[in-house]
Each structure stands twice: as C-alpha cells, then as structure tokens.
Design goal:
The chain is α/β, with parallel strands linked by helices. The protein has 20 helices and 6 strands. Strands 1, 2, 3, 4, 5 and 6 form a 6-stranded parallel beta sheet that branches. It binds flavin-adenine dinucleotide (FAD).
C-alpha cells in the first residue's frame, strides 16, 4: 500500500500546502517534523516559543483528522532516511526552501532517500520571475511588474489519505513561556480577519508605528501557518489597500529569489564594491544600539520593542538598521545577526535582503547617499511621539516635537518633566550630521577603490 511522508518544515498547515496535498493523495500519510537541535538553539526565545506553539497547533489539527505529528530528532540527513526505512514509505514530499543551510541539508537528505519537492512557502517559486533577458531583476519595481504577470499555481487541496499514527514519536519540547499571540492556522486566520477590517487604511497607516495598521502576519508566513497563495486569494487586489498589501508579498518573494540565486548574500554584499567598506569596530556603540540607549528616541523605541516582544514595526526596522550602518558605520552583518536572533519572524532571506537594502549594499536602486535622519524620520512617522513614549517611558513627559529630539531642548524644560540627559536618558552617542558625512566618505572610498 502506498505510504508517504509529508516532511513539514516552514509550512505548518494542512491547507494551501502543496507538499501535504501531494503526500495526502497516497493511501497513507505520515506527517513528519524533524526537530533540528541546531535550528532550535539558534532561534531566539520568541521564535522558539512561536515554533513550538505552531507545531502544537499542527499536531492538534492532525488529531482532529485521526492522526498526529510524528516528531523525530535530527539532524535531518540522519533522521529522515532512518524514519523512512522504519515506516516503509514509498515517497517523501516537502516544500523546498531557499537558504544555503536548507539546500545543503536537503541535498544530503535527497542523496539517501528521494524527495519530491514542491513550493509552498512563496507565491511564485524562484526562477519563475524573469526579466526579458532571462535574469532575476536586482531592482524591485521591474521584478514586481513581472511578478504580477506570472500565472499563479492552483490552490493545493488536501487529499484523503489515512493519517498513520506511528510509534516512536518524540515529545515536542515544552515552550519556556506561554504563547503571547494565538499560534497556528487559527491564530493566523484571526490576525488576517482583524487586518481585513483595516486593510483599506493600509497605505496610510503602514508607516505609522504607533498605529496597528499592518497585518502582523510575518511570523505566520515565516512558519507557514498561513500560505501565501491562500493569503493572496483572500486579500486580492480589488482596492488600493489590498493591492499595497499584496505588493509586500512580492518583496518577500523577491528577497527569497535573490537568496536562492545568490546564497552568498548572507555573508557578502550584493554589489562586491561594498565589501570594501571600512566598517568601524565599535563594541560600545553596538551594545548601546542593542540596548536601545543611543540617545535617538525612535531608534531606542524600536530596539526596546524588539527586545521586549520579538517584533518591530517595518518603518522602525528601516530606521534602526540605517542608524547602525550609516550613523555608527557598523557592519550590517552585526545588525542582521541581532535581528535574526530576536525577531519572531526572523527569516534569513527577508532579514539579509532588508539589511542589505538598508545598508545600500546592493538590492534595489536606492543610492547609498540616501541616509535616513532618525529625528526627521521620527517626526514624519510618529508625529505625536506616541510610539516613542510607549517604548521609552523615561521620555513619557515630553510632547512632540521635543520627544523626537530631547537633546535640542533646554535642560530646564527637560528637568521639569524629569528628564536629565546623560542621567535618566542618554545624550546622543553620535551627532547625525557628522556621522552622515563619515558614512558617505566611507562608502565613496569603497566605490572609488573598484
Ligand atoms: C532591517 C529589516 C529586517 C527585516 N527582517 C525581516 C525578517 O527577518 N523576517 C520578515 O518576515 N520580515 C523582515 N523584515 C520585513 C518587514 O519589516 C516585516 O515583514 C514586517 O514588519 C512584518 O510586519 P507585518 O506582517 O505586519 O507586515 P505587513 O505590512 O502586514 O506586510 C505583509 C507581509 O509582507 C511581507 N513584507 C512586508 N514588508 C516586507 C519587506 N520589507 N521585506 C520582505 N517582506 C515584507 C511580510 O511577510 C509581511 O508579513 C525586515 C525589514 C527590515 C527593514
């Protein structure tokens, strides 16, 4: 009797899952998860908790149809062939992944047991969105135009295989703390429904960190508790707000396609000249940035939100990343690692792509000399200062515009609301105008050395 394994990885759902769809068309299917100690240890506390919550939710979903998640401990290249032999399966299905780590692991697995690969984590698979010259565009807008024209694969429907409950499954580790957000596909559906109430305000609110104007679906997409294909169908492009949201899914595909073609982007700038930038070695600056103690309120608010919750608003990710790279002239790879460790949605292609974008080291057309000013960014995107006051409570007594730039205030005015720079709140660790010139000189020197 035909028996398949569906090897779940970043697709922790049964709907809109091409690998599950194919595997569950056999007579019998074993839903498998390989716990990889290396991956679990490298995930920070928020991602680890979310992963374990999502795995628990997948197990619950499988129990509802008479099965359960079969858990084995990796490394996958040992655990998968062993499990396949023990369970006597005739085929293995999985959704492919784009990182170098995943590719190496998957190639090693496939060398000892054939795997049928599908694409369930992106809207369009890598290689399917090409310029007229047959290449992947290194600039987003032309990629996006092509992306909109590519035909979508049909929605993957689950099959009706009997779900096998095999012996020898390991228990899932218990999360250290309870989930903050409801995990799994039902949590994702609730988040999506809440977002659809405000989707038409998305173009206006998406850059306002004080407002709840974005979907907060990034961790769902990261772990696959919602599929991008179904998400696209549900949201659609019928209004400007919906189309703006779908455009963000294209950014997500683009960064994944870039990493698929250039796995070295984790370590190297997309444009090699930028690997010659003479980055500063500044452990104290890096630590102040991580701690949210730079003296730039919007930067500190973002870094504290990240540390407290594992999430940071996209606009503030851009501002904090730019501050590290341009104002402190610290190598973007340090920031990428810190974000990846803490972000609940931490995801190599998205994180690396966005960090390289913020650093101006290759992806997209933004020139390196466009340097964010953290104070004017704060005034534009957090005009009342509500976001800053939420995450930097020692500035709670300050109104806009002083809350954007306390160092410009009269010390007496600050003292009246309990703020003493250098005591209750840091003085800016670097002067932005000076830092901007320093960064431009360093980038120019790297380019001139070509
Ligand atoms: C320096 C930096 C690092 C980042 N690291 C990550 C990361 O590790 N993982 C991650 O998922 N996103 C990352 N992003 C992208 C973006 O900040 C988050 O996806 C977004 O904030 C998630 O919130 P949301 O789901 O409410 O987004 P929405 O605004 O509701 O967007 C919907 C979805 O589109 C995708 N998306 C939105 N913006 C981007 C973008 N700039 N790039 C790629 N996809 C996008 C996400 O999957 C998101 O869930 C990073 C951005 C920056 C500037």
């Amino acid at each position: 009797m035909a028996r398949s394994i569906c090897w779940f990885r970043r697709d922790l759902r049964l709907d809109d899952n091409p690998a599950w769809s194919a595997a569950s068309r056999s007579a019998e299917v074993v839903p498998l998860y390989v716990l990889e100690p290396q991956l679990l240890e490298s995930a920070g506390p928020f991602r680890r908790r979310r992963l374990l919550g999502d795995l628990g939710a997948l197990d619950d979903e499988l129990r509802e149809i008479g099965g359960r998640l079969h858990v084995v401990v990796g490394p996958a290249q040992e655990a998968l062939p062993r499990t396949a032999a023990q369970l006597g399966v005739t085929s293995i299905h999985a959704n492919a992944d784009v990182t170098a780590f995943a590719t190496r692991r998957d190639d090693a697995c496939a060398a000892s047991c054939p795997i049928e690969w599908h694409w369930g984590t992106l809207l369009h698979p890598p290689g399917s969105v090409r310029t007229a010259r047959g290449t992947l565009s290194l600039v987003f807008t032309p990629f996006y135009r092509r992306w909109l024209d590519v035909d979508l694969a049909p929605l993957a429907e689950p099959g009706s295989a009997r779900v096998v409950v095999a012996t020898g499954s390991e228990p899932l580790p218990t999360p250290d703390t309870d989930a903050v957000e409801p995990p799994g596909p039902s949590g994702a559906r609730d988040r999506l429904e809440a977002f659809l109430e405000v989707v038409d305000a998305y173009p206006d609110l998406r850059d306002r960190p004080a407002d709840d104007g974005t979907s907060k679906l990034s961790a769902d997409l990261r772990f696959g508790t919602i599929g991008p294909r179904a998400l696209f169908d549900i949201v659609g492009t019928a209004t400007a707000g919906r189309a703006a949201f779908v455009r963000q899914l294209a950014w997500r595909d683009w960064y994944a396609h870039l990493l698929w073609e250039r796995p070295d982007l984790v370590h190297r700038a997309l444009r090699p000249a930028y690997d010659r930038i003479d980055w500063r070695d500044d452990p104290a600056g890096l630590q102040a940035w991580k701690d949210g103690r730079t003296g730039y309120p919007i930067v500190d608010a973002g870094m504290r939100q990240l540390r407290a919750t594992g999430w940071m608003h996209n606009r503030v990710r851009m501002i904090t990343a730019s501050f590290l790279v341009k104002d402190l002239l610290i190598d973007w790879r340090h920031g990428e690692r810190w974000f990846r460790h803490l972000l609940v949605d931490g995801d190599v292609p998205q994180n690396v792509g966005n960090w390289q974008w913020a650093a101006g080291t290759g992806p997209d057309a933004a020139p390196y000399f466009r340097v964010f000013n953290p104070t004017t960014q704060a005034a534009t995107h957090d005009p009342r200062g509500d976001y800053i006051r939420r995450w930097v409570p020692e500035l709670a007594g300050l109104a806009a515009p002083l809350v954007h730039d306390p160092s410009s205030a009269d010390p007496l005015e600050l003292a009246a609301v309990g703020v003493v720079l250098g005591d209750t709140y840091p003085v800016p660790i670097v002067e932005h105008g000076f830092a901007r010139e320093r960064a431009l000189a360093a980038y120019k020197a790297a380019l001139d050395g070509q």
